[in-house]
Amino acid sequence: MTALTRRRFLAAGALAFALAGCASPRTASPGKLTLWYWTRGLSPAVLDEAAVRFAGAGFDPANVSHDLRHKLLATMSGGAYLPDMTMLNDDIAGYFGDADQFVDLNTMGAQRLRGDYLPWKWEAGTTPDGRLLGFPVDTGPAALFYRHDLFAQAGMPSEPDDVARAVATWEDYFAFGEELQRALPGRYLITDAKTVFTYSMAQEPRKYMDRQGRFIGDEEPVRRAWERALSAVRKGLTAGYFDNGSTTGSVDRHAAWTNGTELSLVNASWITGEIKESAPTTAGAWRLCRSPGGPGNQGGSFIAITRYCPQPQAAFEIVSWLLSPTNQARHYADVGIFPSAPAAFTDVTARQPDPFFGGQITADVFGESAKGVQPAYFSPWDIDISNCFTDELVNVESAGKDPQQAWRDARSAIDRLLQRSGVL
Amino acid sequence: MTDLLPRKAPSAPAVAQVPQRRRFRHLPQYLAISPFYILFLVFGAYPVFYSLYLALHRWDGIGPMQWIGLDNFALLVTDAEFWNAIGNTFIIWVMSTVPMTVLALLIALGLNSSIRFKGLYRIAYFMPNVTSVVAMAIVFSSVFSTEFGILNSFLSAIGLDPVGWLTDPWGIKVAISVMIIWRWVGYNAIIFLAGLQAIPADIYEAARIDGAGPVQTFFRVTLPLLRPVMLFSVVMSAINGMQVFTEAQVLVGDRGGVQDAGTTMVLYFYNMAFLENDFGYGAAIAWGIFVVVVIFAIINWRLIQRPERAEVSR
């Protein structure tokens, strides 16, 4: 037996330290199949079931919450501790330039499942050269959320079908709002100018860039959305609560939901949970109907398999089970993320009457909207470009900036953005 | 386990080993201080130089880097948003440091006088400094909320017009400054208090015998003797003021609020690097911030040096 000396002990320690340092594994937990997801991104019940079902493959879901993107970028640039599977948000187009970092799900046989999912959603997860990077998780179909009780109090149409008919277009909606606000002074039709712009754009099949990488934000869809947002401000229909996405930015908005200052809002399905949580006393007073201007989508996530996953086929089996139409209905029932598989819209689990909306079956309204969305091309810069426009709309609305100047400033900000990114 | 037994001292051959040994004579000492230098090299020096390298590239954080030379810096000097961020940072620094210093001094004077529950007050004033900023931002946004904030209901109650604290460009700056003041006033008061207690009592006694009133004593004795402590506090607040980030981000969001009124230098850097995934430009902004801080430090240093030089020449 060799004697344990201090020197040997230190040498052994240093060696172990060095080895541990050099041999950082490619994936987060070798021997397992890790899935990174965020809170309320997937149903915990479905994940628990999957962990049991795929225990043999070593399925290991890990909640990395809202830091997911930063952690993913860090592990990708370091090439170590990568998750085998990861959720990606609606900024998925930002990863298209680095599609080689992910498994092309088409090579795993994803095509045979294609028919189960909404075509536009499937396309949004596909790179321009046809690789399927992200498997569809949820969608964000837009609808009009409104206060049934206050609409009725004002003597206006208040049942979902009647309201939908009365506010078929944005122009109708604004006219409706003016009448409504005359009957209910001190209350507002809609949150802010930004909402109008965002959800107008959500309905457009052409966004900010075309497939050839040309900026088309000067053209009709964006101009129309911009003018529409300005007209809502000019008519005094927006409250300007300015939900700035900060931790606390929506204090005013939450209060406005509770005390009925905000009469309606056009928003994607994912806001439902926030309304329920921040205005519990208004339960039963809300209704949903088709959004003015028609169906649109805002947001929605995907699951991708990273390139270093040692068993991509096994990982794909897990992903396709997690996101099967049946399980998508469960995700919706549990955490409120709206399905991307039409079969889930009619699933009895998803079609539960919601007492918060007076017993309305919300899945029907969102489902109609989701089915009507048109496929669109999203460039990697779409979200940043959209932010440039909405920042300036906030300036017009809150600080009284000249709209023409605001448009020019938005355009020059976008030029700089595209210049920095090497597009211009 | 023979190795653990005391060894016999080596005899004659040791003389020959001396030159060899001299080189490593200080090795244990170097080894003992090496953890700091190793950690500094890995986590301090390397990122600094790497960020300079990064600033010369276009990089989205995943794919290959693309060499673009000084393009990022050329963009930076013409970037109105960056200049605006520099301006905001300085305005917020002045708006927070000046009232904070005065307030901290008043609190320190109060704590230094003979009152009861001194320890309790000291803890109470220091608490904000160790409270989570994000948690406090929730409280502060309820205070500053336009429609339903405490501050605006108070203003309405005394017959004044409500202010859009978080929707008005100046309101945003005030709100951020107030949050900084709230967080740092207790910390500085404790520092001032230590300075006050270090002033010898016989100087006050001499001042009293010479017939100085309390006001005169304060301006002729206390303030001059507190000067080193106040300089420390101003330098500290400058260091913190150049790095303001959390307060702005939690109050007005990543985009900096209306007319970018809350965009500080570091918030802008964070936006570009971590939200728009433009790490090259982010690194260039970081170096821009570095240059601004260096210039500021030189100005600061010259201002601090001047009175002493004057004294020497006199």
UniProtKB/TrEMBL annotation, chain A:
A Pfam family annotated for this UniProt entry: SBP_bac_8
Keyword set, alphabetical order: Signal
Record has Protease as a keyword: no
InterPro entries membership: Bact_solute-bd_prot1, SBP, TAT_signal
Transferase is among the record's keywords: no
Residues spanning the signal sequence: 1-28
Record's protein name: Extracellular solute-binding protein
Organism: Pseudonocardia xinjiangensis
Source lineage: Bacteria, Bacillati, Actinomycetota, Actinomycetes, Pseudonocardiales
From TrEMBL, chain B:
Location of the protein in the cell: Cell membrane
Major subcellular site: membrane
Transmembrane segments: 30-49, 90-111, 123-144, 170-196, 217-239, 279-299
Membrane topology type: Multi-pass membrane protein
Record domain ABC transmembrane type-1: where: 86-300
Signal sequence, renumbered to the chain: none
SUPFAM superfamilies, per database record: MetI-like (SSF161098)
Superkingdom of source: Bacteria
Keyword tags: Cell membrane, Membrane, Transmembrane, Transmembrane helix, Transport
Family stated for the protein in its record: Belongs to the binding-protein-dependent transport system permease family.
Name of this chain's protein: Sugar ABC transporter permease
Protein's organism: Pseudonocardia xinjiangensis
Lineage start: Bacteria, Bacillati, Actinomycetota, Actinomycetes, Pseudonocardiales
